[in-house]
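Shipment paperwork, digital attachment
Item: protein structure file
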Amino acid sequence: MASIQLGHPWPLGSSLTAAGVNFSVVAPRATRVELLLFDGGDALEPSRVIALDGRHRSGDHWHVEVPGIGVGTRYGYRVFGPLLPGQHCFDPSKVLLDPCARAIDGWQVYRRADAAGLAPNTASCLKGVVTERDRFDFVAAPRPRHSWQRTVIYELHVGGFTRGAGCPVSRALQGTFLGLIEVLGELKALGVTALELLPVMAFDPHDAPPGRLNHWGYSPLSWLAPHHAYVAGGDPLTARDQVRRLVNACHQLGLEVLVDVVYNHTTEGSPVGPTLSWRGFDDRLYYHQTPLGEYMDVSGCGNTVAANRPLVRRLILESMRCWALELGVDGFRFDLGIALSRGEGLAPLDAPPLFEEIEADPELSELKLVSEPWDCGGLYRLSDFPARRVAAWNGRFRDDLRSFWKGDEKTSWSMAQRLNGSPDLFGGQPAEAGRCITFVTAHDGFTLADLVSYDRKHNLANGEDDRDGDNHNNSWNHGVEGPSNDRAVMALRERQLRNLLASLLLAPGVPMLLMGDEVRRSQGGNNNAWCQNNPIGWMHWQTNGEDQALRQFCRRLLRLRERLAPLLNPAHGPLERRPVQRHWHGVELNAPDWASWSHSLAWSLETAHQGALLWCGMNAYFKAMHFDLPPSRGGWLRVIDTALPAGQDLPERPEPWIPPGAPLESRSLMLLVAAPLLEGFRL
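Attachment content:
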C-alpha cells in the first residue's frame, strides 16, 4: 500500500489526485485532527484512522493525500483542541461532517439528539462522500440569461411541487429532482422564466417539533451537498448528476434556476444544539459570539454565521461556485441576506467583504442574485442594500397591495408608489431594473387563496399552539372564515385573486409567484407550513374548473406582460428621461384622490407623440364607480375586467372598448390597451 502523503491545503474538501484523494479542512485552533475512513454509509466505526499532525498543517488548513482510494469513499473527522469556557467545540467523540463535502451519506444511522430525545450533542455518523468536481456542460445547455426586465420568478419546493393527489409525476420520482423534470412543461406553459427552489442544499430534517420533520429546509447541514431526500434512489453518488439533469432540462426549456441559500445560520442552533460540522472544527470561527462565548443571533435560529471573516466567506464562495459552475444553477436567493452584511459584533457594514468578493468574481457576478433585505435583528436595507448587483425583496409592495385591495384606509397613495416602482423607497426614482423583487405571496405566509379566505392564521398542526407564524397578514376572509359555499363570497374572492395577480404583473419590477397560487392552492389557513411535509405543504394537482380558470387568467396575464414589457417595466433610466410617462387619475382625468378614505385609483401610460397607450382603473370600494378615460388615437381594447365571468375577464381576443368612460364594479380592476399595441396578438 502506498504511503500517506502530506497533501495540499487547496482545494478545500476532498478532491481526486493522480494517486488517490486529497483532503483539506479548516480548523485554526485545533491541535490534532483525525481523518476517518468508513466502509459504508451506515458504518458506525471507521475502518481506518489517519492521524494528522503539524506536518499536515499549512496555516489554518489541515491536509493529507491518501493514495489508493477514489470516488465513493466515505469519510469524516475528529478534531482535538483545548476545551475553553464558553466554547462548544473540540470534542473528539464527535464524528464531524466536512463543511466542504459535496455529497453526504449516513442518513440511515443519523439521529439528531434533541429531536430523538437523546442527551445533547450525542455523536452523529454523517459522512462526506468523495465525488468528482466536473464543470456543468454549458455548451450543451447554455444559461437562458433572461433580462431582469422580462424575468418572472416562480418560487417552489422541489419535494412539495412533485407530490400530492393527482400528481402527474411518476410514483418512483415523486419528491425528487428528477420528478420535477417531468412537470417542467407545466411551468413553461404558464409563462414564468425562472424557478426559485426552496433550499436544496443538505439540511437537517429532524430540526423540527417532536413528531414532525423540517419540510422547507431552512436548517442547513451542508452548503455544497444536494439534499439526500430529493435524490431518486438515494445513492449520494448520483445526487450531483440528478441536479445537473434538472438544470439541463430547465435550460433546454429556457427556464433559469435560482436556489434559495441559507448562509446566515446553521442547524447546529444554540449552544445546546448538536455538534455536527462547523461547530466542531472551530466554534468561534464560524459563529458570532460575545467575548464570553454566548451566541449572537439575528437569524432567529440560535446562531449567526460570521460570513465576513476571510475563512468563512471563502467557504461560502466555494459553495456558490460549486452550485453555479459545477451544477449549473443561474442564481441565488439569500435567506435573510442582509445578515450577511454584518461584521464583528454584528455591526452593519456598508461594504461587506463577502458581497465585494461575489461582485468581483466574473463567474458569480453575472448570475441573478436576490436577497431578503431584512433579518431578525431589525436590520432592513432595501434601496441601500450593500451590493449593487443584488435584487431585494420588496416587502412593502406585498403589504401595500394587500391593504389596498382589502379596503384599508390611507392606501391609495402607497398603492400608487408600488405601481410606479416604489420611488419613495428608492431615493425618489423608480427602482432600477433588477433591483426590486415584487410579490404578493411567498412560502412564508398565506398562499394567495388563503389570503382571501382567512382573517387569521390556523397553525395548530405545527405543534406550537398556534404561536408560530406572523399575526399581521393583511388578509380578509370576505365574510366567512375558510371554505365557503356562499356564491357571493366565492365570487368576490375569485375577483380579488385576479385583482391581486393583475396588480402584481402590471407593476414594474421583477415579479415572483408562489407555487400553486395560479390554481388556488390552499394550506388551510396555515401561514407557516415549514414542518408540513404532507398535503398542506404540497402542490394542488386535483384542480377543478375554477382552479383552471384562474390558471388560464394567470397564463394570459403573463403573456400580456411579456408583450408589453418595455412599456410596463422600463429597463433603465430615470423617470424624467423615459419616453413613456405615467399619469395618475381618479374618477376624473388627472385628478387622483389621495384622501385617506379613498379606495380607488387609475393610471395611464402615455407618450408625447402617441398619446395614451394604456389605462388601468382599480376600484377597491364596495360600490361601483365610473371613470373618465383619456383619448387613444388607435382606439381602446378592453383587455382585463375582473368583474366579468371567468374566461371573459381576460379573453383570448380583447374586444374594442368604446367610451364614454369606464364603469368599474366594486372591487374590480379594468385594463384598456391601445389597439395598435396588440394588433394580431392572441392571449
